[in-house]
Inverse folding.
């Protein structure tokens, strides 16, 4: 019986510390296999493998406030492990692993997860999962790192705001979307106006060249930040405008006439002497 109490086995992921008449040993044993101890020594085992703490709908979501006092709730899963080298120190304060978790780890996790979102505004907290996870990790390492807790992973999710805050936030987002749409419409209108202005200027320049004999010259202009070569027409004053019926003017008027009377136009071969009856206009008096 005495020999049996001197032999113990540690599985993978286990560590142990001996206690002799109430005095905790200075070394933790974490090698897998069979070990020996004195019969009068007590053995305190700890699981040093990755462990999980979850706050969710089943275990109670984290509820806190943002920097602008909006209520926010979220789920979070935290994975951590224990440093076996810290076990003697832990056991001097807590009699076993269950006490350590309930009295040190859980209160620390609860405090840090409530404090982390307070640095974010209501408008940014839902889009800041990575930053929130980093804040929680840093907070846990600062609070629990000295007692042997190593944070492996932090996963915040399902971040929600108070219903009233969310409704107001949605209204703001809708207003922003409407403002962006209006801005796009304005840009389109300005572009159309610029096109109309350009077309009007082109018509005016053409009129000056054809009807008044205006001249043109090349100039350098900056458009959209780039220097380009443009053609600029030098207008002729009204009193000096020739208003000449030159070949270009006559051809322009001829083309306009053809366009206006295209439906009733009859083409006569050049040199023919035939007389043609033009179509009768509906409603016109017969000759």
């Amino acid at each position: 019986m005495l020999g049996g109490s001197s032999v113990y086995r540690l599985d993978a992921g286990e560590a142990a510390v001996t206690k002799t008449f109430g005095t905790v040993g200075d070394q933790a044993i974490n090698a897998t296999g069979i070990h020996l101890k004195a019969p009068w020594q007590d053995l305190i085992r700890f699981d040093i493998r990755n462990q999980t703490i979850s706050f969710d709908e089943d275990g109670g979501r984290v509820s806190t406030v943002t920097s602008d006092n909006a209520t926010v709730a979220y789920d979070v899963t935290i994975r951590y492990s224990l440093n076996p080298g810290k076990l003697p120190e832990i056991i001097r304060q807590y009699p076993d692993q269950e006490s350590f978790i309930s009295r040190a780890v859980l209160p620390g996790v609860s405090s840090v997860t409530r404090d982390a979102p307070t640095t974010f505004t209501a408008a940014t907290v839902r889009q800041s999962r990575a930053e929130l996870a980093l804040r929680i990790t840093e907070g846990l390492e600062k609070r629990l790192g000295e007692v042997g807790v190593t944070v492996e992973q932090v996963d915040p999710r399902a971040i929600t705001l108070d219903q009233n805050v969310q409704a107001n936030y949605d209204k703001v987002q809708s207003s922003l979307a409407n403002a962006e749409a209006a801005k796009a419409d304005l840009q389109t209108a300005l572009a159309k106006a610029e096109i109309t202005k350009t077309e009007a200027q082109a018509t005016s320049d053409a009129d000056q060249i054809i009807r008044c004999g205006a001249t043109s010259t090349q100039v350098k202009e900056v458009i959209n930040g780039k220097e380009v070569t443009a053609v600029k027409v030098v207008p002729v004053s009204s009193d000096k405008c020739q208003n000449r019926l030159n070949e270009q003017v006559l051809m322009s008027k001829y083309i306009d006439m053809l366009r206006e009377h295209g439906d009733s136009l009859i083409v006569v071969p050049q040199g023919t002497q035939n007389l043609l009856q033009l179509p009768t206009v509906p409603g016109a008096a017969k000759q």
Q: What stands out?
A: Helices lie at 87-93, 97-115, 129-144, 163-212, 247-260.
